[in-house]
Amino acid sequence: MSAARALLSFDLEEFDIPMEFGRTLPEGEQIEVALVGLRRLMPLLADRKIVSTFFSTAFFAMKAPEEVRALGLTQEIASHGFAHTGFTPSDPDRSKRVLEEITGKRVYGYRSPRFRPVADQLLQNAGYLYNSSENPTFLPGRYCRFFAPRKAYRKGELLQIPVSVSPWIRFPFFWLAFKNTPAPLFRAAAAWTLAESGYLHLVFHPWEFADLGGYGLPRWISSPCGGELLDRFASFLDWLGARARFTTLADFATAFLVR
User: Fold this and answer.
1) I want to staple 108 with a disulfide (CB 3.0 to 4.6 A). Which of 120, 129, 150, 258 is the partner?
2) What is the Cα–Cα distance from 221 to 218, expressed in whole angstroms?
């Protein structure tokens, strides 16, 4: 078995991205789209016995507590803030408490919605072990973090676990790159980064596996989606599983901090 690790993570949130493009969407539909994608995704992970980390907003968990509780039986549940839109300094603490009450398990990790910066002290005060709120690359219109650390590192009492990017050119391993990059090129970059870093940390959303037609989203966001994306994702997971062992971020953090 390879010593390399695959850190597969999902942001489990209300489907509010159409609102960034001037559309309105009822609250119930935002939750339902994410649930449709989650229900399609889970058999794929279960069939392959893949463990991963789901960063859930407290808002989503309160709207779908049974689904989040069931998800927590096989996958790590971490915090994605209280709601996907908006922020108050109490969000890291109160979202952690909501998720722990629903799942009955400790929440170790935090990721800010849209990778917004968050004060480490807020996370330390709330009792988090790790922070995964950095995507150290360039995303037009959002952020430019070319000089942020690429690999996991300790900062005070917290372990920072950035999303993986490749050496040198910082090719990002997040959902938009997966959708818009030819599969052979994405895998070549993944193999390069896995060999150089010893692990690969990727980010997706359950709502990507729902059918996204009719929401007015640009094609670079909405296509592929649904079953077409699920097939591509399954093929990639089989490729990655032959090269690395899937691990939750909490287990990765624990092993990192004791070495």
Assistant:
1) 129
2) 6
